[in-house]
Design brief:
Number of strands: 7
Strand content: 25-35%
Radius of gyration: 22 Å
Number of domains: 1
Helix content: 25-40%
Shape: elongated
Largest sheet: 7 strands, antiparallel
Amino acid sequence: MRARRLLALMNRLLQIVSLLLCVLQTACSLDSGSGARPDILRQESSITIYRLDGDAGRQPDSDGTFHDWIVTAVRSVTDPAVQRSLLDALRTGIEDPDARARRCFIPRHGIRHCQDDGNTIDYVICFQCALFRSFRDGGPGEGGTIGRSSLQTLMDSLL
């Protein structure tokens, strides 16, 4: 009788653990939808980087702006190795646990990542205050902190 109860309890525990593993696997495979993290670089993707005039303040959206910030320089990055370096540095900066935000948000850098699946993710970055905003397919901006990775140096050298 006791062995039977123990076996039933173990069977129930195994069912619960299996269910939890299924839930975890599903949760890990879902896209967070935040748009903040750079997706893995795929073939056929393109990257454009921007130097922005954050000192001029936000401007009405026009041909000479990138998400309401005046563009002072622009460069298309076609070399896959440089594209990968940019995205790796962006990912490292976003994932930096030591990044501490300040309040200025005077962005001087931008990145447009057009992916082969038709999605576009734009990043407007202020390294001075360690904040960024991201826009997926022209939708509303989301953001977070960004650490002082090699991204700023790399972008400045390319612009």
